[in-house]
Design a protein that fits this description.
15 strands, 2,3-Dihydroxybiphenyl 1,2-Dioxygenase, domain 1, 16% helix, 4 helices, globular, 254 residues, nine-stranded mixed beta sheet, 31% strand, four-stranded mixed beta sheet, alpha+beta
């Protein structure tokens, strides 16, 4: 996306990604991110949790959130980050909305989210028995946001199975949100729609899963394409940038 313009931040756009890290790990992450020249902001407290906001190389706002949840986590033994500090998963996202009430009603009545609290002008929605939150802030005086390099394209929400997928799609359609049809991505199935404020949402199934066409222990080691893209493999590989996995330096892990 070298020629794509940067985003125009505003309402109707997810503008920050939240990643979960273990308790008492922000000191480690501050040192590590500073080592690589990352633009850091001062640590904060949000909704009772310690967080570390920073800007990634493309301008995306990212925040590490300390949390003591018992979510499933499979540590990566080959990571340059020690297991006790490794990122546990996606914690959530933050969005600006022109009309926060309309989005709140949609989240609660159509998608079943629960209000989890309010803090410094933000309202948090999520599920008490599952990971994943969305923080909403009403910004009626802000301009309409626009996608670009360093912005979030859409927010994906997991459903239980294909029956649940169709049921939630029906709820979204009944609310007037005009969802797409079910799109088969080979590893999972998707439905897309805009919530009332314009943020693009996806409903995604778990199955059949990424292990359907390769061994689970080797996931991520090679470029795997769905059957409908196999005929374009040479063209796709020719334009992809090379990726180099983290290496160990002579003095230890980097």
């Amino acid at each position: 996306w070298e020629r794509l313009a940067p985003p125009l931040m505003g309402h109707g756009l997810a503008n920050e990604v939240l990643l979960e890290v273990p308790r008492d790990s922000l000191a480690f992450w501050t040192t590590r991110l500073e080592k690589y020249g990352t633009r850091l902001h001062a640590p904060e407290t949000r909704f009772g949790s310690q967080v570390l906001p920073f800007i990634d190389p493309h301008g995306l706002k990212v925040t590490l959130v300390e949390d003591a949840s018992d979510r499933l986590f499979a540590p990566w033994s080959g990571s340059p980050v020690p297991e006790q500090y490794q990122i546990r998963g996606l914690y959530g996202a933050r969005v600006w909305e022109r009309d926060g009430a309309a989005t709140a009603i949609f989240l609660k009545r159509v998608l079943g989210f629960e209000p989890l609290g309010a803090d410094a002008g933000w309202t948090r929605f999520g599920f008490r028995d599952a990971a994943g939150v969305i923080d909403v802030r009403e910004t009626p005086s802000e301009r309409r946001g626009r996608w670009g390099t360093g912005s979030v394209h859409h927010l994906a929400w997991r459903v239980d199975d294909e029956a649940h997928h169709l049921a939630v799609r029906d709820q979204v359609a009944a609310a007037g949100a005009q969802p797409t049809g079910v799109i088969d991505r080979f590893w999972f199935k998707s439905v897309y729609f805009n919530e009332p404020g314009g943020v693009l949402f996806e409903l995604a199934t778990d199955g059949p899963g990424f292990a359907v066409d390769e061994a689970r222990e080797h996931l991520g080691e090679t470029l795997v394409l769905p059957p409908f893209l196999q005929q374009y493999r040479e063209k796709i590989e020719a334009v992809l940038p090379p990726l180099t996995p983290p290496a160990e330096s002579s003095g230890g892990r980097t």
